[in-house]
Every structure is written in C-alpha cells, then in structure tokens.
Specification:
By secondary structure, the chain is an alpha+beta fold. It has a single domain, classed as Aminopeptidase, CATH 3.40.630. Helices cover 32% and strands 22% of the residues. The protein contains eight helices and eleven strands. The longest helix is centred in the last third of the chain and has 21 residues. The protein is globular.
Length: 287
C-alpha cells in the first residue's frame, strides 16, 4: 500500500494509488453540505518521514480497517481496549472523517477520528465518561453552549510507540483535528485524554477545561476535557505547530478549492489566520 508523497510547497493529490475508487462520500457540515470527499487527501510530512491522510471510512475502507486494528493494539497494550467497540466502529457510521499516519512501509502508525458535528450534548461520549461525577453537568453545559457554532468530538487517538519520533507523531495527529475542523466548518472540537498525556495534545492549541477529572476508563486514570477553538488556537499552540497547521491546512483547502464548494471556507480561514502572530508563552485553561 503506497501513497503519493508530496513535500511542502506542492499541493496534495486526491489519489491513493492501488486503491479501488469508491463513490464520493458527502460530508455534512454545520452550515450545510459543502463538499464531498472521494478517496481522501494525502501529503508528505518530511519531519516524520511519513504520509498523512485525511479520509472517510466508506471512501477508504482498507485504510480505516488498518486504523482500527492499530488503535486496538495500542489501547490493548495499555489495558484500556474496553473503551473501543471495534465491532461497532468497523462500519464507520458515526465517523465523519479520520486521519491516518502511514510510514514508508505502508503501515498505519497513528491516527484520530472525528464524530459530529454534534447535535446535542448527549451525542458526546464525554457525557458518559463523567457519569456519576460532579463535573458531568458542566461537561454537558460546555458542549451545549458550543453546539450552535459547530462541535466535533475527536476519538480513538493513538500513535505507535516509537521513542525516536513519538512526540512528532503525536504532534502530527494533534494537527489533524484542526484540519478536520476547518474542512467540516466547525468552530470547536473536543477530546478527552488522561492527565499523563495532556501536553502532547495541547501542542496544537488545545486548552484544558476547568472541570474536575473523571476516573475514566478506570481508577488508574484521571481524564480531562480539551477544547480547540478554530478562531484562536494560534494563541495557545506551540510555534512550530502553528507554522505546520497553517501550511498544511492551506494546502488542503487549495486542493479542495480545485474540486469546488469551499470558497467560503478558504476565505474565512485566510481571514482568521492573516496577521495573527501567535502568543505561545503558556497553556491556558478554558472555563
């Protein structure tokens, strides 16, 4: 399994070689059906020597199966495979888009999936993660307050254990959440993670919600909610992450622009990021 590899400066291609072309999959956004994703988009990240892919389970079922298998192996290694219902996920019904990191051997070594845009707080798995905890109503309220602006929930994030490039792999996966937000026209996305790995995900501009941690999936963990805001992530992201988010997202939008239907998204992204120098001296907590 090989992908077209493009180094920065060359726009990504809308072709995944040696994969049977599927029917285009419509991606409903918070403001209506704006685009369709045929087989996904891929580009080369020279920093990690891998290909990054954004796709949809029905558009690329082989890659989706490999993503799920990798996620299950990773979660099982840490004894938390119970949080993944692989049989239910296999059809991809609640996944609107997913990212995958593919190495030069063709192996999926990390990724993330998005569900949404959420229609209500009860659509979020986070509400279940805080069941019986003092912060559950606060979690519900935070989601409900953001629903009108578009909310994606990121789930099943993972990377392979690679001591030589683990941080860079996590950085790449964390950036993909922002890219999916832009493409799907959602202002916010949320993600739950154990306190031990929070900083890995905060590098791309996430802020930690001021909500008491929940012992999820079990008492070994203290899990928190992170939020990304498409309109101000650059204020909280690390400088190298800001630079790569801007570069990669512009390439993605230009590729989508050639397919039509994303003029408004392209213009809005340009207005949001133009002349916005990042301030990245500390991490923030969102209330």
């Amino acid at each position: 399994m090989k992908y077209d590899n493009n180094v920065y400066g060359v726009e990504p291609v809308w072709r995944l070689p040696e994969r049977k072309r599927m029917n285009a999959v419509s991606l409903a956004t918070s403001t209506g059906d704006r685009l369709s994703l045929g087989q996904g988009v891929s580009w080369r990240d020279p920093d990690i020597g891998c290909t990054l892919v954004l796709s949809h389970p029905l558009a690329d079922p082989g890659l989706w199966s490999e993503f799920l298998a990798g996620a299950h192996r990773c979660y099982r290694k840490h004894g938390v495979e119970c949080v993944l219902d692989v049989d239910a996920l296999r059809g991809g019904a609640d996944t609107v888009m997913f990212s995958a990191v593919v190495d030069d051997a063709g192996e999926v070594i990390g990724g993330l999936r998005a569900k949404g845009p959420l229609r209500s707080a009860d659509d979020s798995h986070a509400v279940l993660e805080w069941a019986g905890q003092p912060g559950q109503q606060t979690v519900r309220n935070m989601i409900a307050d953001r629903i009108p602006f578009g909310v994606l929930e990121m789930k099943s994030g993972w990377t392979t254990d690679d001591p030589h490039r683990n941080r860079l792999l996590t950085d790449a996966v964390a950036r993909s959440g922002l890219q999916m937000m832009v493409i799907l026209d959602a202002q916010f996305c949320m993600f739950t993670a154990a306190t031990s790995v929070l900083n890995r995900w905060r590098s791309s501009g996430a802020v930690v919600a001021a909500i008491p941690a929940t012992p999820y999936p079990d008492e070994r963990y203290r899990t928190k909610v992170l939020w990304w805001n498409r309109h101000d992530f650059f204020n909280y992201a690390q400088p190298d992450q800001v630079a790569k988010i801007l570069t990669e997202t512009e390439l993605l939008l230009r590729a989508l622009h050639r397919r039509g239907g994303v003029d408004a998204l392209f213009s809005e992204w340009s207005s949001i990021t133009r002349g916005k120098p990042p301030r990245t001296t500390h991490f923030e907590v969102v209330a």
